[in-house]
Amino acid sequence: MEKRYIRIATVMCGMILGTLLTACSSVPVLPTATLHPSKTVDIDSYRYLIGAGDSVNIFVWRHPEVSGTFVVRPDGMITTSLVEDIPVSGRTPTELARQIEEVLSTYLREPVVTVTVSGFVGPFSEQIRVIGEAARPQAINYKKNMTLLDVMIRVGGLTQYADGNDAVLVRVENGQQKQYELSIDSLLRDGEINANVDMLPGDIIIIPEAWF
To answer: Whole-angstrom Cα distance, residue 5 to residue 13?
Structure first.
């Protein structure tokens, strides 16, 4: 009788385990995040793009009632006194000015618009991300002519456990992810200025931990 109960318990455990495994296997898998390429392919082509969180000042000549300062929403849009949901993220200030002129031409005669930006958050695709064994891993707003040394100063350098000479730069070029080797230890600790390379918007720097 006791052996019978043991067999029944074993079967039930197997059934429960099988149910759990089936349930786990049916859990949907999230798609891998996509790295969106920057619009900047070289330093000389860089133009600042508006992003969520930026403050956009829109001046409409002779129409102060429709002028004003607006914060770009997380969805990349702004709402003005005349027009709701104007998409602005990913545009230069000049491109946005021409777009608003086109929209306002429905309500005003030959509107002349000037756009200025403050805050300078920029779109995610233009930010440089530093992860791993940096003193302060973070996302950094790109500035024209920014180099690897500038980025490392912003993140406070390396931790004592970092293997800076095995760091990797991930960059999207022509829709494809490419990886480049970085020699951050040589740059920061040995002063090898040849290891200082130009950065581009959207770059990702991965700094691994050293093996002791």
So the answer is: 12
| Cα-Cα-Cα-Cα dihedral sign, residues 68, 71, 76, 77 | negative
Whether the pTM exceeds 0.85: the reply is: no
Decide: helix, strand or coil at residue 8. helix
Domains of the chain by residue range: 51-118, 125-207
The secondary structure of the chain in percent helix, strand, coil, rounded to multiples of 5, reads 30, 25, 45
What is the rounded CA–CA span in Å between residue 188 and residue 186?
6
At the topology level, CATH places domain 125-207 in Outer membrane lipoprotein wza fold like (3.10.560)
The fold for domain 51-118 equals: wza like fold (3.30.1950)
* Distance (Å, whole) CA 143 – CA 127: 9
Q: Per residue in 102-151, pLDDT tens?
A: 999 999 999 999 999 998 999 999 999 999 999 999 999 999 999 999 99
Q: Judging by DSSP bridges, how do beta strands 77-78 and 86-87 pair with one another?
A: antiparallel
Q: Helix, strand or coil for residue 26?
A: coil
